[in-house]
What we know:
Layout: H1 3-10, H2 14-47, H3 56-79, H4 86-99, H5 119-139, H6 141-151, H7 162-185, H8 188-214, H9 227-230, H10 237-265, H11 273-286, H12 295-315, H13 321-345, H14 353-378, H15 384-392, H16 404-407, H17 410-422, H18 430-437, H19 439-456, H20 461-477, E1 484-490, E2 493-499, E3 505-510, E4 513-519, H21 543-555, E5 560-564, E6 580-585, H22 588-595, H23 602-606, E7 611-614, H24 617-620, E8 629-634, H25 649-658, E9 659-668, H26 677-685, E10 690-696, E11 708-714, E12 729-732, H27 748-760
Amino acid sequence: MNSSDLSVSSGLPSESRNRLVLIAYTAAIFVSALLLFSVQPLFTKMVLPRLGGSPAVWSVAMVFFQSLLLGGYAYAHYLMQLRNRALPVAIHLALLAVAILALPLSIAGGWGEPPTSGYALWLLGLFAVSIGLPFFALAANNPLLQAWFVRTGHPDGPDPYFLYASSNIGSFLALLTYPVLLEPMFTLRAQNLIWTGGYVVLIALIATCGVMLLRSPADAAALNMPADNADAPPPSWILRARWIFLAAVPSGLLIAVTAHISTDVAAAPLLWVLPLSLYLLTWVLVFQSRPLLPHSWMLLAQPLVISGIVSLLAFGGEQNLLLTLGGHQLGFFVIAMACHGELARTRPAAKHLTGFYVALSFGGMVGGLFAGLVAPFAFSWIAEYPVLLALAALCRPSGGERLARWTVWYWPFLAALALALTLPAWSSGKMFAWFVDHRLWVIGGVGALSVVLAHGLNADRWKIFATVALALVLLRAYPSDDGRVETVRSFFGVHKILVTPNGQYHVLMHGTTIHGAEKFRNTDGSPVTGRPELITYYHQDGGIGQAIAAIRERKGAPLRAAVIGLGAGTLTCAAQAGEDWKFFEIDQTMVDTARDPRYFTFIQKCDPNLKLVIGDARLTFAREPDGAYDLIIVDAYSSDAIPIHLATEEAMEIYKAKLAPRGAVVMHVSNRHLELSSVVVGIADANDMKSWVYNEDSGRDSEYIFSTTVVVSAREEADVGKLAGSEQWTMTEAEDGQRVWTDDYSNVLGAVWRRFRKGEE
């Protein structure tokens, strides 16, 4: 049978039929990927309020999606082993139809409140029972439809991997359009309904593809299949293992580089979109029939960018933020291109396509599990980033070494070099100080040595790996921080406790954002005694200090106060004798850090019998009795990974209900990346409350006393006391053109844009 026979059997001219087949399959794969990747931010946004808006929710979500992707690919692989062509079509359409029962998307009953520990496993369970079935059905579409396409007899069937690029274009667009178009324009409910409608359209497209497959002759796949393709032996297990490794490294790096740039560089909102977009783009580029960026170029650039990232890690992230962010992103892109390019180069014949995708998805899951679940528990810092960076060197193809008879001596040379460079780290004398002062040159030199090995000698990849690993070990051995740093890691992030030179200040940081500080020594070196001074955002002349004093004066009696967010425990020292203060904190490690007198003494000296409630404040605070508090302080927004659910119309309704008849809500909204004061004014206005905004620069940042932005909201003007008449506080009306944030709608990108505009003014 030839192409003309095929056209007769289908009732269409060959060219027209082939065009329709290509359009139908491309459209189905594109829409499937669009739905697959848009459901991730959509459903994760539904879940975020359960865990305080923690960015770690995104990491666990990625692990879940990668794991279920493996399940979908394995299902597609085994489904295509069936000899009956109609059975896979019928089974898959039935699965898609059954999955409709789980729509519209919603959190499954019984999963409303998280446990006190084991958040990651709880999240995985929530995702599985809530959206597991529809996501599993979507995950299988890409390899399944490609396998069907091969069997339609289309001329492009022998090499259908270009459809994988179409899939990733859909994923790429879904990821970019969500924060830019869907989130600002539609409520969560509207997004959900749009997604459900798209799912129904997809079923129709896949049914069309199935009909086209069934109308093709049984031997259609053999029409255009080269003999060497049809007779291709199955890939060896060594090659399969290599595929898994090549997929695991960039998958893990995706999570690791996101964690690094949002923890140690800048915890800017939506920053996770950039590495994920680049990751998807690499899949689009490498599986093109004519790659825009040749694989040989990426292999040449890979050692250079690995060495460059080592230098960036040694240099630090605060000095030139754009250069640092751009450098890490560029490095990740090149490494991912090199790894994925190797996968594209070694891809099997079309008859083994589904097995290839199973290996890819398994590798993606392994990398995601390591970086998203194992590393946060195994390391107290973002150690997975340098580990995966070193492993990236092993992704290079093997090749003949130049000067092989001499390079065998490289191993003893490297061992001696490692010993010489690491020994000073065990001392505390002049040699250690010299290495710290010259660390950039030492580490940069070792990093450059790996480039010489790769380009000058075409050295074995294990030698390059060992050299890069040595450079990364030196980074940890000779830290660049000006002072002593300890790290504390939990599900909710990595926090650093910085002890400044001479032990004068202890500073609590998340990335480059300061959450609190305490002065331990005076300028002359003598220890600070007595009650700790309120500094950073909480000094008595700042917005929070003024608000507390005004409400206390207006009441004329001891306050009953609630504080959402403990931090270093600074506000425990804002309470006066006889007052009743209660704190609400989601992260137990923060409580342990604040209670530890080695780090901070606010709690020990000011409130040793601290009243504390652990859990997400939106859930725990709602259980407090109505009318219980004269003052509610929401101090959860100085970080850049903001808990949106604490700044919605419904959240303010809860705060208002818990206020005493003349109480006030104080919201600390200082933020480098988002303008949130107008958001708070809007949600207060929606609850018939008036708001006053304080936004003044202290001018004393060198003393760890910072400028603050604070909003006070109350039922009546008299409730805020002297603040209503203060020149530093501005009574502010809600903006007419700005949509109020609710549990169903928020616009982070709009807040970023308003902050940018104010910075330009």
